[in-house]
């Protein structure tokens, strides 16, 4: 399952180091004059701009990464796990010494658009700048104005905890040359304004690709497979195909289903859980209806791309054991027919998180249980018991294979070894 | 445990909607929060002060208290929904079930009783009763009871404060108390408490029962939700 091969990384990085030192020019590129600074700061206080920036920062979900658990908003400190080690998100409150208090808009634009820090250093792409580069200057300005309006919090940044050679920032220069093209979103004149708005939000600020696209061994996204689904590195979740792909994608979802999921955390087709529940609770539930509809319009225009692979059928004896467990443990809520109960228990039949190619989500869903996110549209969600303590690896595999191969679902079986591994995957 | 989940979902004629919503909690804590006979480290929730339950739920959310499966389960809940859940468990009635206590020497049991009723002034430990109520069933709205808790749970909590695995906002009362105790004291007090048959009424005393002010180092954390 693991696509990350440290060997290749090491090789490329060592090559890159040579190149990197040569290409990398430290130092700030353009220092604004005092007069420019003054003009900029006056403009940044416009309340309408700040309000728009607050909305856009919510769309970008900046707070989710830039806030430590139980910590002050945007003051940084949360460590983002990557296969190469942890990268802490920095303090982006306007504190002069530990935050972005001394940053000019040009500094901020370079971070968001080019993925470069204030001193020109390349930033790790766990900061979603490969998506944020599509954000236009006006929106970036609004976000900057909003961040500058926050209370300054004094909290020094922690250093990333990466092993050599990933710890050498200059190694990123080669990575960027290969995989990162800065560029603001270019509208497609042959499409509607709504489609273009949706594409801008999904590819840009909403950074849906950062999870919903497969990454290669170097942690980079494959352009041709954008939004076709992918494992989330180092977190043990699978973000499903968001195109109209049948069996694991959004085939059969109406635009309203997509809007419902993003706005309330539940829909007639499934609920948001794992990292997607965080995205809904912190970000998408706050989007206005026009933006949500635009997102749905764009996603519904994406053609299926992955050719349906022939699926191995689980052993009949396993399916029978799984069916028995399902009847005893699951059918009360999800129904013998896998249709669930509208607005209460999600259907498992035709649920793309059940049929996604790896089986990771179904296994973790069963092990961890939990609530759909509490949102304004669904303030008192129902819950599912965690089965980690109640079912063995074999039982979990059996019941998961049953739901992956019953009703209209035809997805590849999981092994009890997969369950055993996922049991020990940390939740955050 | 399966029986809990199944009994709970085999909908009675008019299911209590909250009872169905919190099926996840019930699978560990029991349908009415009565605790789990099979797992002495899972505490009962039924009848505990609502303010205390809410504060603990927030502590699992913000990382002041740790138990990975519980942290995952409460992660997506809003402060308002947590308050409703806390109120619901606080209002539950559930019979008490005795849990096993490892054998102790007579001296240890005496020491335990001493700490509970009189504390140990030489080490700066107030009696447990002075805070947890004369009936040891807690005091509204924030002080939890000690009656009815298992040996293993009390022991694990005192340990968690000593190793800073459990904390609260502000200077936590129990961090101070637990760190003034010796390892022997922890065992003794947990064993004595868990050996007592609890009173029939396990509900906390009214706030007015707290006559003496709490010591200056004991500040009870503030919840995000105004009660």
Molecular structure report:
The complex is a heterodimer of chains A (428) and B (227). Chain A is mainly alpha-helical and 428 residues long. Chain A has 3 domains: 2-179, no CATH class; 193-300, Cytochrome Bc1 Complex, Chain D, domain 2; 316-423, Cytochrome Bc1 Complex, Chain D, domain 2 (Orthogonal Bundle), CATH 1.10.760. Chain A is 42% helix and 6% strand. Chain A contains 18 helices and 9 strands. Chain A has helices spanning 6-23, 34-44, 47-60, 62-66, 105-114, 129-132, 137-149, 172-179, 193-203, 209-212, 255-264, 275-282, 289-300, 316-334, 352-355, 360-368, 393-404, 416-423, and strands at residues 79-82, 85-88, 161-162, 230-232, 237-239, 266-267, 270-271, 370-371, 383-384. In chain A, helix 9 (193-203) packs across helix 13 (289-300) and helix 17 (393-404) packs across helix 18 (416-423). The longest helix of chain A has 19 residues, at 316-334. Chain A is globular and about 75 Å long. Residues 1-11 and 17-27 of chain A have low confidence and may be disordered. By secondary structure, chain B is an all-alpha fold. Chain B has one domain: Cytochrome c-like domain (Cytochrome Bc1 Complex, Chain D, domain 2, Orthogonal Bundle), CATH 1.10.760. Helix content of chain B is 44%, strand content 0%. Chain B is built from 11 helices and no strands. In chain B, helix 4 (50-62) crosses helix 6. The longest helix of chain B has 13 residues, at 50-62. Classes of the chains: A mainly alpha (428), B mainly alpha (227). The A-B interface holds A 69-70, 265, 277-278, 281, 328-329, 332-333, 368-374, 379-386, 388-390, 426-428 and B 1-2, 5-6, 9-10, 20-28, 61-64, 68-69, 71-73, 75-78, 80-81, 84.
């Amino acid at each position: 399952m693991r696509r990350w091969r440290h060997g290749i990384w090491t090789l490329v990085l060592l090559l890159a180091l040579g190149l990197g030192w040569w290409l990398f020019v430290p130092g700030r590129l353009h220092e604004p004059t005092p007069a420019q600074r003054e003009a900029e700061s006056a403009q940044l206080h416009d309340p309408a701009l700040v309000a728009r920036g607050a909305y856009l920062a919510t769309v970008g979900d900046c707070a989710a990464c830039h806030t430590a658990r139980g910590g002050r908003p945007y003051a940084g400190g949360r460590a983002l796990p990557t296969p190469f080690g942890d990268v802490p998100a920095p303090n982006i409150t306007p504190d002069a010494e530990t935050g972005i208090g001394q940053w000019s808009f040009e500094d901020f634009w370079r971070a968001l658009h080019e993925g470069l820090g204030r001193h020109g250093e390349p930033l790790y792409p766990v900061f979603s700048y490969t998506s944020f580069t599509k954000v236009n200057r006006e929106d970036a300005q609004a976000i900057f104005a909003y961040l500058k309006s926050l209370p300054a919090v004094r909290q020094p940044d922690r250093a990333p905890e990466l092993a050599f050679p990933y710890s050498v920032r200059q190694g990123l220069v080669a990575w960027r040359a290969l995989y990162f093209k800065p560029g603001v979103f270019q509208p497609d004149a042959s499409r509607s304004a709504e489609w273009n708005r949706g594409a801008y939000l999904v590819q840009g600020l909403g950074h849906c690709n950062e999870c919903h696209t497969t990454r290669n061994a170097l942690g980079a996204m494959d352009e041709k497979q954008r939004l076709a689904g992918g494992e989330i590195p180092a977190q043990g979740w699978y973000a499903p195909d968001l195109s109209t792909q049948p069996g694991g994608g959004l085939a059969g979802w109406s635009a309203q289903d997509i809007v419902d999921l993003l706005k309330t955390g539940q829909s007639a087709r499934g609920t948001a859980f794992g990292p997607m529940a965080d995205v809904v609770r912190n970000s998408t539930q706050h989007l206005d209806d026009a933006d949500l509809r635009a997102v749905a319009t764009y996603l519904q225009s994406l053609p299926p791309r992955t050719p349906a692979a022939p699926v191995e059928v689980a052993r009949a004896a396993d399916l029978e054991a799984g069916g028995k467990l399902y009847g005893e443990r699951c059918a009360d809520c999800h129904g013998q027919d896998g249709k669930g109960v509208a607005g209460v228990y999600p259907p498992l039949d035709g649920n793309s998180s059940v049929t996604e190619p790896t089986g990771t989500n179904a296994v973790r869903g069963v092990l961890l249980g939990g609530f759909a996110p509490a949102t304004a549209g669904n303030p008192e969600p129902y819950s599912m018991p965690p089965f980690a303590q109640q079912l063995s690896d074999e039982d979990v595999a059996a019941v998961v294979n049953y739901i992956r191969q019953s009703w209209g679902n035809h997805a590849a079986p999981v092994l009890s070894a997969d369950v055993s591994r996922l049991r020990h995957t940390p939740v955050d | 445990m399966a029986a809990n989940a199944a009994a709970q979902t085999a909908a009675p004629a008019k299911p209590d909607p909250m009872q169905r919503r919190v099926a996840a909690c019930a699978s560990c804590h029991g349908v009415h929060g009565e605790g789990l006979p099979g797992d002495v480290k899972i505490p009962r929730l039924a009848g505990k002060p609502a303010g205390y339950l809410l504060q603990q739920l927030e502590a699992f959310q913000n990382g002041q208290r740790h138990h990975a499966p519980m942290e995952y389960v409460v992660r997506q809940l809003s402060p308002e929904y947590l308050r409703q859940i806390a109120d619901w468990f606080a209002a539950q009635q559930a019979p008490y079930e005795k849990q096993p206590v490892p054998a102790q020497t007579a001296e240890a049991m005496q020491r335990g009783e001493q700490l509970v009723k009189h504390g140990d002034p030489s080490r700066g430990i107030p009696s447990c009763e002075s805070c947890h109520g004369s009936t040891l069933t807690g005091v509204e709205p924030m002080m939890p009871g000690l009656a009815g808790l298992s040996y293993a749970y009390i022991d694990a909590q005192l340990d968690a404060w000593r190793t800073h695995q459990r904390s609260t906002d502000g200077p936590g009362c129990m961090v101070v108390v637990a760190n003034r105790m010796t390892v022997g004291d922890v065992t003794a007090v947990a064993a004595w408490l868990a050996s007592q048959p609890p009173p029939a009424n396990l509900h906390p005393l009214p706030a007015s029962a707290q006559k003496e002010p709490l010591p200056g180092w004991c500040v009870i954390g503030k919840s995000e939700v105004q009660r």
